[in-house]
Amino acid sequence: MRKLAALIFLLSAVQTLALAQSQTERPKLVVGIVVDQMRQEYFYRFGDRFGEGGFKRFTDQGFMMTNGHYNYIPTYTGPGHASVYTGTTPATHGVIANNWYVKQLGRAIYCAEDSTVTNVAGTPGNGQISPRNMLTTTITDELRFATSKRSKVVGIAIKDRGASLPAGHTGDAYWYDDMTGDFMTSTYYYDSLSLPKWVSGFNSKKIPDNYLKQTWNTLYPIKTYTNSIADNNDFEGPFVGKTTPTFPYNLDSLKADNGGYGLISSTPFGNSLTLDFAMAAIEGEKLGQRGETDFLAVSFSSPDYIGHRFGPQSIEIEDNYLRLDQDLAKLFEYLDKTVGKDQYLVFITADHAVAEVPSYMVSENVPAGNFNSGMVMNQLKGFAMAMYGEGNWILNFSNEQVFLNKDLAREKKIDFAQMQRDIADFALRFKGVKEAYTAADMRNQEYTQNRPHLLQMGYNHKASGDVLLVLEPAWLAGGQRGTTHGSGYAYDTHVPIAFYGWKIKSGKSSTYTTVTDIAPTLSILLKTRMPNGTTGHPIKEVLD
What we know:
Layout: H1 2-24, E1 29-35, H2 41-45, H3 56-61, E2 63-65, E3 68-69, H4 77-86, H5 90-93, E4 99-102, E5 107-110, E6 119-120, H6 139-146, E7 153-157, H7 160-164, E8 172-177, E9 182-186, H8 197-204, H9 207-211, E10 215-216, E11 249-250, H10 251-254, H11 269-285, E12 294-300, H12 302-310, H13 315-340, E13 344-350, H14 358-363, E14 369-370, H15 373-388, E15 394-398, E16 401-404, H16 406-411, H17 416-427, E17 433-438, H18 439-444, H19 450-458, E18 467-471, E19 475-476, H20 490-493, E20 497-501, E21 507-509, E22 513-514, H21 518-526, H22 540-543
Parallel strand pairs: 1-12, 1-13, 2-21, 3-22, 7-8, 7-12, 14-19
Antiparallel strand pairs: 2-20, 4-5, 6-9, 8-9, 10-11, 13-20, 15-16, 16-18, 17-18
Helix pairs in contact: 8-11, 11-13, 12-13
């Protein structure tokens, strides 16, 4: 009996030692930060006013790849988050846009929609959310599998897609309900219709009410915002209830006409609210404090809302990043105290960057323009009927992609590949269209560089359109005020890629790097499998 007891004790000791060794080979906590609509340029343009504890942790103490890019078209929020965490592009993971048309359904679907689940807290209309449309695993999934699901994964964002896609198929996700001001989730994540106690406790504090009673004014005297254009201009979109896009913004008076609780998303206080909830998650789930490696995926959505409305040259966007810098400093100080300095690993990137407001570019004598998608759709329909006879030939035009009626072409014995070519050639007549490619091109040729390569990396054989357009530089589908993103030009693709913390040396490199390299780099650091659709490569400069 004594020998058996000794053997059991020895085995237990070996298991304990093995577990301890595995824990020391991984950080206590990984924090993935995605800033929605952030250019790499902002590190330089606003950097002289950043404090020491926020963004400068990456530039001064971390390792930054200064030439980081998206390697596909289109550059949107849904595919951006999916690509960062899966290590591959929409061609493989299947999230080809925020919304895309599905021929079999005869309608567009949302990237994170799931009709099989319902809301847990929040409102029903915001609750049918899951990552099921993402067809591959994520680095967060692989960490869970590597630890027999002992590791916890929590995804957090104001936008549901910014929370659900990074959390992967096996983590937990929470997003903001703009109807109630609460954070919510869905039955994909919980069988119970009740939130965890720490989430309910956070919601009970009604923190958004406090933020929405404030006035958004500049953090510093407005005359010191010399990295932006004049506050009052013709290129920015004012809030409803204001005649000019100018400071100050009294949120209490603007709330009723600007989406109620949703207004917070379009202010820097949306970042602060996200941070508040992230720290509550660390405390509530004891992330990084349980003897296992946990993963917190945080997406700051507000810069995108602000950027769309005001544009990258606005004082509003500059003030947003100065305030976000302070929020990050608060997060890192909290992590230093709760998890331990050098015990956690952080990366930062963006889901896309952003284009300049076309009307602003025109005012500076730079070629630019607004692309009228509705007019193009009507012209395409007229051309198709003139070529092939009466019929619903053009099913949809979205994301600069044309969806054609293949069934009708088959019925009328029309050469579908030639039809694609005819439509593509006709589309080149429109002002603002630079290039046009067909689905046949994407399937039958291998492109290795420039825009056709980016299109191909975003082209999914089952989901993408039949004709793919590339607009001229600085041309956008939109109005005279505000801006957007989605192209393969550097202003939309050039984003931060930086690491800080556990086992990360300080430095920088201008080697061309893509966001799909982030997940395989984490796989090496965390000693896990790479996500099962990975096409990116580990970043040697970070690892060696």
